[in-house]
Amino acid sequence: MTAIPQYTETGTARRVGVEIEFIGLDVLSSAELVRATFGGAIKAVTDYDIRVETPELGEFRVELDFALLKNMGAERAQTSAEPSLISQVSEEILAALAQQVTPCEIVSSPIPFSAVMQLDRLVETLHQAGAQGTDDGLLYA
């Protein structure tokens, strides 16, 4: 097996985006663990989509892997009107259920191949906080 070149033909560092998918932690806790590992600032786009801008590795997107709930959160964030009680309760129930059956994911911006091993620190931090691979859950087959 040949090694993947570290640089492109033009001499720039080859980059790769990485996605870490897991169960057992919510979006906000996961974003806080990214910040604790790499530093930076947290910006909540919605309750289900949080960005962490790190000094060395750029932006990480932390989100619940559930399009319907992310869309509901985005719609709520774009309006200044208070949601109806039914809408609010429906979203809260859906969110509570989704966090039991939907994985959380952390997606990096493209980082240099030489920096990929730094993600091991994040994986270890997530594991110590209770994150499990999606293969560990009965509902994630």
Name a few traits of the molecule.
8 strands, two-stranded antiparallel sheet, single chain, six-stranded antiparallel beta sheet, 141 residues, alpha+beta, 4 helices
Describe the structure.
Helices cover 36% and strands 25% of the residues. It has helices at residues 27-38, 67-78, 85-101, 119-128, and strands spanning 15-16, 19-23, 41-46, 49-54, 58-64, 104-108, 111-112, 132-133. Helix 1 (27-38) crosses helix 4. The protein is elongated and about 55 Å long. The chain starts with 14 loop residues before the first strand and ends in an 8-residue tail after the last strand.
Could you give a short description of this structure?
With 141 residues, this protein is an alpha+beta fold. The chain has helices spanning 27-38, 67-78, 85-101, 119-128, and strands at residues 15-16, 19-23, 41-46, 49-54, 58-64, 104-108, 111-112, 132-133. α1 (27-38) packs across α4 (119-128).
Give the beta-strand count.
8
> Could you say how many structural domains there are in total?
1
Largest sheet entry = 6 strands, antiparallel
* Arithmetic mean pLDDT: 85
* Rg from alpha-carbon coordinates: 17 Å
Residue share in β-strands: 15-25%
**Straight-line N-to-C gap:** 31 Å
Helix content: 25-40%
**Shape estimate:** elongated
- Widest sheet, order of strands: 3-4-5-6-2-8
Number of helices: 4
Which structural class should the secondary elements be placed in? alpha+beta
The secondary-structure element order is EEHEEEHHEEHE
Low-confidence stretches: none
